[in-house]
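Minimal example, chain plus adenosine-5'-diphosphate.
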Amino acid sequence: MSTSQHAAVQATFADAGLIDPSPAADDRADAVPAPGRMGPTGRPVRARREPAPLTDHGPARVIALCNQKGGVGKTTSTINLGASLAGFGRRVLLVDFDPQGALSVGLGVSTHQLDRTVYNLLLDTGTAPDDIILKTNVAGLDLLPSNIELSGAEVHLVNEVAREQTLQRVLRPVMDDYDFVLIDCQPSLGLLTINALTAAHGVIVPLECEYFSLRGVALLIDTIDKVRQRLNPDLELEGILATMYDARTLHGREVLSRVVEAFGDRVYDTVINRTVRFPETTVAGEPITTWAPSSAGAVAYRNLAKEVLSR
Ligand SMILES: Nc1ncnc2c1ncn2[C@@H]1O[C@H](COP(=O)(O)OP(=O)(O)O)[C@@H](O)[C@H]1O
Ligand SMILES: [Mg+2]
């Protein structure tokens, strides 16, 4: 996005009263904790080295971003973790597995104009991933887009043989082309999400630092356990990502400490602060890492990518 487009989007948000036109509060230098200091999770912040470049690519590690609660940062985290991993030279495929198509829209795709999507890949034999994969504006970052048609997939999948393994099966031809496949799940624990968990090696659970965030997590963990027992013995809980954190409120700090109490080391050191810059990027149709590369949000997702690469 050009500087003038950037300014135009900023102005629109300022007009709507959505942002303070002065520099964003999250751009304060202390918004991202520095190594040596205490981080928001109550652990000292570890310095992480830049990931080493890769000479070979694949096979992909498949990670599902999953939480049946909506609005917790699944899509935002899929886009920005993906873009950050691509920034470190990894080949990344993002799978939009939510009929709302927010992941596709967030990467600038007009979803209503797509003639083929993930839906066709799941249900039409003869459709291959390469027929559907789109390049994004970020080098090394590809997208399997979806749109509202995907909402009809569950009823059709029910009649398929090995219905839970459908996504895993259709992704197989491209597994060697990528280092990471990130699946943006829909806010439910239905058959599409079970397909994502069956195709995945790991699950990242974004958790909003809000009072009700832990509600429903027991059910999610239970579902992950069931999928591990019955369908995918290799499935791991990759990590818990605290999102929409506001260090200025006691409430935010209390919720985060409860999350750390509940999940210990599974909680990433990286915590994503609440900032209006993320909704801005949705309008801009690009990741925060390219829209505002030096913002605290971009730095945070790059740190998350380093953690994912080091686990
Ligand atoms: N860290 C954040 N701070 C403020 N707003 C955020 C943050 N992360 C995401 N958002 C916004 O919150 C809304 C929901 O986020 P999204 O990633 O779409 O959640 P989900 O995919 O879990 O429904 C979007 O409008 C998004 O721009
Ligand atoms: Mg979403």
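The first helix runs from residue 3 to 15. DSSP finds 13 helices and seven strands in the chain.
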